[in-house]
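Human: Can I borrow your eye for a moment on a structure tokenisation matter? Separate attempts, laid side by side, tell us more than any discussion would. Could you pick a protein and write out its sequence and tokenised fold? No explanation is needed for now; the record alone will do.

Assistant:
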Amino acid sequence: MINKTYMFTCLFILKFAVCFAQFTGSNHIDSYLNGKVDSVVTINYSTLRGPDKLVKKNITAKTVDLFNKKSELIAEFFYLHHGEQMVKSTTLNYTYDKNGNLLHLKIQRSNGENNETTYITKGSIVSLSNGVKIKIDAKGKKIENSEYDNSGKVSYKSYYKYNINEKLIEQNIYRGNDNSLMSTDVYEYDKYGNEVKEYDKSHPTQSITYTYDAYDKMHNWIKRTMYKYGTPIGIDERQIVYHK
């Protein structure tokens, strides 16, 4: 039986990574992986409490991510039922202008939920055809995100902070109608840039944390344990192939 909490969390993290790439024109590699990655196979396991450690039980899901030589995520395949039955696939196609600014992103999904987004860059402001405006810094990192409703009013506004290694460390989300703070999400990393903790500042004990048991030659994790509110909920293993 699939651990629903674990699956939801994994999907949320994956969704965030892909959305972040869509909005900034950066990629999944920038946020989560080191090196020129060709493909990543991530296998999710349910767990059992052994006599002296947590042990793997069953495969709950598998995700296959493919990247081009620009380190852009170009395809993703998601499997359930012990990682054997593909239930969703996604392909991404990027178009850039002569200055390297993202012009167009086309996403096609196997369930028919396809979408295309056009980007217009003027200085530090990027306007998206889906009613989002983004402000970027000199390095191209998203520092402000505004979402608008059909009447042209701001629905939500988010602000982003990064550490010296350009990793996202804080996201503040505000309501558009009264500019009240909805949440402050905090992210922490190990010395290799792998995420070790994420939580809302208003509920610091309700965190998602990770411990890493193995890294590859590029210091990307290849085995980790995931915890929700301090309770282990799954083990992940990754097989990473790099472009030659």
Notes: Confidence is low (pLDDT under 50) at residues 1-31.
